[in-house]
Automatic annotation (TrEMBL):
Principal EC category: isomerase
One annotated GO biological process: D-xylose metabolic process
Chief place of localization: cytoplasm
Name of the protein described by the UniProt record: Xylose isomerase
GO cellular component: a single term: cytoplasm
PANTHER family attached to this UniProt entry: PTHR48408, XYLOSE ISOMERASE
Localization annotation: Cytoplasm
Species for this entry: Methylobrevis albus
SUPFAM superfamilies on file: Xylose isomerase-like (SSF51658)
Lineage of origin: Bacteria, Pseudomonadati, Pseudomonadota, Alphaproteobacteria, Hyphomicrobiales
Binding site for Mg(2+) 2: 269, 272, 308, 310
EC numbers on record: 5.3.1.5
Gene3D superfamilies: Divalent-metal-dependent TIM barrel enzymes
């Protein structure tokens, strides 16, 4: 049943590249087979609840600009129920297979954790019915351990053990809801797991606390039989000066230190990669190389602003480079592309919510087609293989197997008169190659 929020807009359909209809897919044809798999199954799109439905148009220097009906004063639970109805109308109009949420996005915080959890479960009951009615599933859920003032010094890393325990109880509830709704992952987003100054911080204590908290979540996953992945989302800065989950490499080092590298994967965001002074494809490639690639928050950041702008991903060449790395990783298993993106605070119309998603879904579909063509062409991968071909020889293999010492290599160079010459990396040629397909 329509809520009326989107007026007379009908479900978005694929109309092909020649269409000029702004509310139609030109490239995203969910049933098109690419590399043996349907486009929908490659991309596994999810709409996030927070930016789409809970974002009121604020920025660091300006107040709310969106006048959504569920922001009206009055019965907060009634507004939350209306928001859920509009949310599933949005998901079905876009024909996405998944959605994602934080607990505080979907229901108001109560006077106690028990009341807050009850509110979340009331909305989760609505979700369960909507999931059955629409077929839109839950990609992942997560607990908001950053908005309330109690978390100003972190949640798991907080110097107060009572806040650590409160956060654990909150996570347990959201984890249970996620599992009961058939969620395919559970995300731990440490928005304030970091510190402002070492003058009042015990770094080792906080890392140990964070490691213990994550270990408890992993233990609970196994206890409850949850089959999905546990994900951490790297974030380099903002709001904390120093974030403990700065980037993929930092997260891997943390997981390794606490024996969790086989238990936890990463949810990588393009905007966060840029803030960490990396490229999106670097973070994806590194996660794959380290065996912790899980899922993606799809957005883009401004290269001129030092904070999270969370814009819709529209840059096809950039997305193509990212998609190549995801295809190299074997594609998603439980993960997917979650639109962690928000319309601009001047984009006031309900239609704008749809236009942002439609455009980014089309951009990602174009990137998938281009990346698949590049993989099938084979020239790029062949160049990389050729560049490292020397390591297939007997001596280099023995070096990597630990069968040769520094003395052995020094003697080999001396006796053979080895005098290697550098070879061009052909970066410009390869950049030109990518552009041929985009």
């Amino acid at each position: 049943m329509s809520t009326g929020f989107f007026g007379d807009i009908t479900p978005i359909k694929y109309e092909g590249p020649e269409s000029s209809n702004p509310l139609a897919f030109r490239w995203y044809d969910k049933n098109k087979v690419v590399l043996g798999k349907r486009m929908e199954d490659h991309l596994r799109f999810a709409v996030c609840y927070w930016h789409s439905l809970a974002f009121a148009g604020l920025d660091p220097f300006g107040g709310a600009t969106f006048e959504r009906p569920w922001f009206a004063p009055g019965d907060e639970m009634a507004m939350a129920k209306l928001k859920a109805e509009v949310g599933f109308e949005l998901f079905t109009l876009l024909d996405v297979p998944f959605f994602t949420f934080h607990d505080r996005d979907i229901a108001p915080e109560g006077a106690s954790l028990a009341e807050s959890n009850k509110n979340v479960r009331t909305i989760a009951d609505i979700f369960a019915k909507k999931i059955e009615e629409t077929g839109v599933e839950l990609l992942w859920g997560t607990a908001n351990l950053f908005s309330n003032r109690r978390f100003m010094a972190g949640a798991a890393s907080n110097p107060d053990p009572d806040i650590f325990m409160y956060a654990a109880a909150q996570v347990k509830n959201v984890f249970d809801v996620t599992r009961e709704l058939g969620g395919q992952n559970y995300v731990l987003w440490g928005g304030r797991e970091g510190y402002e100054t070492l003058l009042n911080t015990s770094l080792k204590r906080e890392l140990d606390q964070l490691g213990r908290f994550l270990s408890m979540v992993v233990d609970y996953k196994h206890k409850t039989g949850f089959q999905g992945a546990i994900l951490i989302e790297p974030k380099p800065m903002e709001p904390s000066t120093h974030q403990y989950d700065f980037d993929v490499a930092t997260v891997y080092g943390f997981l390794k230190a606490y024996g969790l590298e086989k238990e936890v994967q990463v949810n990588i965001e393009q905007n966060h990669a840029v803030l960490a002074k990396h490229t999106f494809e670097h973070e994806l490639a590194l996660a794959n190389a380290l065996g912790i690639f899980g899922s993606v928050d799809l957005n883009r950041g401004s290269y001129t602003a030092g904070w999270d702008t969370d814009q819709f991903g529209m840059n096809v060449p950039e997305l193509t480079l990212a998609m190549i790395e995801i295809l190299r990783a074997g594609g998603f298993t439980t993960g997917g592309f979650n639109f962690d993106a928000k319309v601009r605070r001047q984009s006031l119309d309900a239609e704008d919510l749809l236009l942002g998603h439609v455009g980014s879904m089309d951009a990602m579909a174009r990137a998938l087609v281009a990346a698949a063509a590049i993989v099938e062409d084979g020239t790029l991968d062949a160049h990389v293989e050729t560049r490292y071909a020397g390591w297939e020889g007997d001596l280099p293999k023995a070096i990597l197997a630990g069968e040769k010492t520094l003395d052995d290599l020094a003697a080999h160079v001396e006796t053979t008169g080895l005098d290697p010459k550098p070879v061009s990396g052909k970066q410009e040629y390869l950049e030109n190659l990518i552009n041929r397909f985009c």
